[in-house]
Amino acid sequence: MPRKNSGMWYEVHPTPVKGEDGKNLVYVRPKSGQKLTMKELEDYCERWNMLRYGELSRVLDAFVRAASRFLAEGYRIDTPLGSFAPKLSLAKQVTDPDQVKDRDVRLEGVEYNPGKLWDREIDKWLDGFRRYDNPDTQAIMADKEKLEQVMRECMQQHHGYITAGIFSRASGLTLYSARKQLNEWTKGDNPKLLKTPRGKEHIYTEV
Questions:
Q1: Residue 202 contacts by C-beta under 8 Å, 6 or more apart in sequence?
Q2: Which helix (H) or strand (E) holds 203?
Q3: For residues 138 and 132, is the Cβ–Cβ distance under 8 A?
Q4: How would you label 31-65 residue by residue, b for 16+ Cβ within 10 Å and e otherwise?
Q5: Residue 66, phi then psi, degrees to nearest 5
Q6: What are the CA-CA distances from residue 32 to residues 29, 86, 136 (Å)?
């Protein structure tokens, strides 16, 4: 677990957008591969915040169940973690308000607004940034044979399917580049993958 004064590792990646000099603009993101499990968070809270192991999980579970009830009734919920509100959309395009029917309304999920809480809390621990020499995206994209091997290994590990997020983490590509490569495998006379919508993302399976 990171401690104060360690600094945050970050990576630099190109975007598809060109800058004034004709080169691709870049963006930064936290170093990939850094992930904390709920068990590790529970261990930390038990050691440093005097919580019994499992107490945090029980509180979060109770919050989700209670909040879901009120979100389902259309309430906005303000909490110390930020605000939560149901997000709605229409299943089709409508220009006349009188033509909107109950059956046309869809629940898209929950909108979360953290406010300034996380900024203030993270700033207490953050002590600058450190660049991580991440892999060259173009070099990775050039080795199609290795990328296909990584893709198939991911397929085996995830019961026959893969997402852009899974492929990004396994290959070292950015999410944009991972999605671009997966989409390439769905095209042509002999595609390797089939792309299927699932919620707000897509899953890819072998043809």
A1: 163, 164, 195, 196
A2: strand 201-206
A3: no
A4: ebeeeeeeeeebeebeeeeeeeeeebeeeeeeeee
A5: -70, -45
A6: 8, 30, 14
* Model pTM score: 0.58
**How large is the angle between the packed helices 164-171 and 175-184, nearest 10 degrees?**
110
C-beta atoms surrounding 161 within 10 Å: 16
- For the record, the structure tokens of 173 come out as 């590509």
Q: Is the pLDDT of residue 129 over 60?
A: yes
Residues 112, 35, 133: CA angle, nearest 5 degrees: 110
E strand spans, 57-137: 77-79, 82-90, 105-113, 129-131
Counting every residue written for the chain, the total comes to: 207
Beta partners for 87? 109
What is the token pair recorded at 44? 């930390």
Give the position of tokens 């290994």: 153
Q: Which of 78, 57, 56, 58 is nearest to 67 (CA)?
A: 78
The 8-class DSSP code of residue 95 comes to: S
φ, ψ at 84 (rounded to 5°): -125, 140
Dist CA 110 CA 130 (whole Å): 34
- C-alpha 91/C-alpha 107 separation (Å) is 10
The rounded percent of the chain whose pLDDT value lies above 70 is 97
Tell me the C-alpha distance between 110 and 25, whole Å. 32
- Report, as an integer, the average pLDDT of 139-148: 88
